Amino acid sequence: MSPFLTAYFARIGWKQPATVDIDTLRALHLHHNCAIPV
């Protein structure tokens, strides 16, 4: 995995393996949106 993705996943709190499927995409979107400060 690239250093960019490793840093991004750490920033959004992603700890699962990054598989290529719709469930992972949905979960990544949720983690991304929840990581945005209010």
Automatic annotation (TrEMBL):
- One GO MF term, please? transferase activity
Q: From what superkingdom does this record's organism come?
A: Bacteria
Q: Which UniProt keywords apply?
A: Transferase
| InterPro entries xrefs | Papain-like_cys_pep_sf
Can you name the source organism?
Enterobacter cloacae
Family matches, as Gene3D superfamilies? Arylamine N-acetyltransferase (3.30.2140.10)
What this protein is called in its record is N-acetyltransferase
